[in-house]
Structures are given as structure tokens and as C-alpha cells.
Design a protein that fits this description.
It contains 10 helices and 7 strands. α4 packs parallel to α5. The chain is globular. 37% of the residues are buried. Bound molecules: NADP nicotinamide-adenine-dinucleotide phosphate. NADP nicotinamide-adenine-dinucleotide phosphate binds next to α2, β5 and α7. InterPro entries: 11-beta-HSD (IPR051253), NAD(P)-bd_dom_sf (IPR036291), Sc_DH/Rdtase_CS (IPR020904), SDR_fam (IPR002347).
Amino acid sequence: MGLLLKIFIPLLGAALAFYFYSASENFSEEMLRGKRVIVTGASSGIGEQMAYHLARMETHLLLTARTEAKLQKVVKRCLELGAASAQYISGSMDDPSFPEVVVKEAENSWGGLDMLILNHIGYYIGFQYFNGNIEEIRKLMETNFLSYVAMTTSALPMLKESEGSIVVVSSLAGKAGSPFVAPYSASKFALEGFYNSLRHEFIIDKINISITLCILGYINTESAMQAVSHVIQGTPAPKEECALEIIKSGALRQREMYYPPWVLRGTLLLRDIAPEFLDSIIRSSYRVENLKR
Ligand code: NAP
């Protein structure tokens, strides 16, 4: 009976979750036309692809990352694809003053903001055993977590006014522990805790800003493949589709999105009903022999 309940309740939960998520699948590009959107980490990878999708949807774009030359190219392409406007601001999110500078730029340019897409990550330290380097973790938390909080804080007045959306790009590593990514995983778990708490407060205070947490698996961006392809088995999912799914989930004001959906839903279901079994599957999916100590 106990085991039955242990399996039945999560299965029922998954079925209900599937029903609610798929029931609201009525995305249309019109929802984003003319909207004012900030995308962080937009010079490459998933962020760059989001910028191109949003450009086709005729949004106003403010893109940010560190590398100016790459941002210039992305902005140019966005304008060719039909963006209502596109601009960039370059800088590093490990500078505590930079998040506010980005948001101010949006305020000066548009006088408001509809969607804040937080996507950047400092750097993949790479897959490795935790080496005890606390300074590295501090820096990573500044870029991957605190800058998200700082951008959100600065953008709140404009998002309240527009009843806008916050989209936070996270990872399976922020939901289930995996080996060799302890600092990265910690920064993603922190996002989960912070934004789930903030969402409660918005609802209690009747603040109509949606918060969407995007839980991603292995995606074929250059940096991810460079960092992990020698260690992880399996085929990465396409970044273009991933980027579109993130945008859709934000426009639909979903609580969470999963990409690729079934792999992640299955993994999280297993985490809840048989965590040790999941841990052993995770461990056996790594080519540990390819890791440097
Ligand atoms: P990516 O290709 O490495 O892109 C990272 C972006 O962040 C780049 O635009 C980079 O541009 C920018 N960035 C790096 N350091 C920065 C800093 N200090 N300040 C400001 N911007 C900085 O990464 P991705 O694979 O597309 O990942 C995007 C998001 O998806 C991340 O949140 C990641 O955790 C999540 N995710 C990815 C995967 C995957 O397999 N790809 C899996 C799970 C979750 P500059 O270098 O020019 O600054």
C-alpha cells in the first residue's frame, strides 16, 4: 500500500502537471509583437537564438553579454530578421554595478519593460571534482545568481507597471544533484529557491508579474559541448528549439518549463519516487575515466 501510494501520487501529479501545462499551449507570436525585452547572455548559445526568435516576432530588444564584437553581429542580424529595434550593452555580470546599468539603459530607451530574460552564466568551470576553491564559487554566485537578483530588483518597478514577465534560465543541475558541477549546481539551486519564494510574495501582494523557471537538460551550444561532451553520454537537444520553447513559456506565463520535456519530466519523477536509483543512473551516465583530477 505504502509503495503504491509512493508511486501513484507522483504519477497522478505528473498527469495533472501535464494536463495543466499542455492546456495552456496556445502561444501566438502576436503576444510578443512590440514588447520590450532584455535578454542577458545574448552573444552566443541559447541567448543568441532567443534574440533571433524575438527579432522575428518584432520585439524591441536590449541584448547584453561581455563580448562587444559578438553582440554587434547579433544586433545586426536581429535588425535584418525584423526586430522593432535592437541594441546592446556590453559588460560583465560579475561587476555588481552592471545589472542596474543594463536595466537603466532599458528605462532610458523605452521608458518601460515587458520581459526580462535572465540567461547568462559566468563560465563553465568545466566538469571536475570539487577542488575546494571557495573564491571560484563566490565569483560564480555573483555572476550566476546575485546578478539575476540585482537585475530583477532594478527591473521590478517597470515590470509592475507593465504586468510583465521574468524568465529565469536554469538547469536540471538546479533540481537534482549531479557530480562534477558542484559550484554551478549550487548557483542554479539558489535561483530555484529565490524565484519560487518571490513568486509566492507576488501572489500574496497581488503583483501581476509572472516568473517562469526554465529547466534545461543537455543542449548543443558550443560552450556546453566543449565543456562536457567528453564526459556525458547522450545527444544534446537543439539550441534553436530550446530557445523558442523558453520564449513561449515566458509569454504564456508558465510557472516552469522543461526542455527536452520528457527526459526531464521522467528524471524528476524518478527523483521523487526513487532518488537513490536516479543517483545511480546519473553516476553511470558519466565517462569518469575522461575526467582530470
Ligand atoms: P553560452 O553559450 O556559454 O552563453 C553564455 C552567455 O553568457 C554568453 O552570451 C556569454 O557571453 C555570457 N556571459 C558569460 N560570462 C558572462 C559574464 N561574466 N557577464 C555577462 N555575460 C556573460 O551558454 P548556453 O549553453 O547558451 O547557456 C545558456 C543558459 O542555459 C545558462 O543559464 C545555462 O546554465 C543554461 N543551461 C544550458 C545547458 C546546455 O547544455 N547548454 C544545460 C542546462 C542549462 P560573453 O562571453 O560574451 O560574455
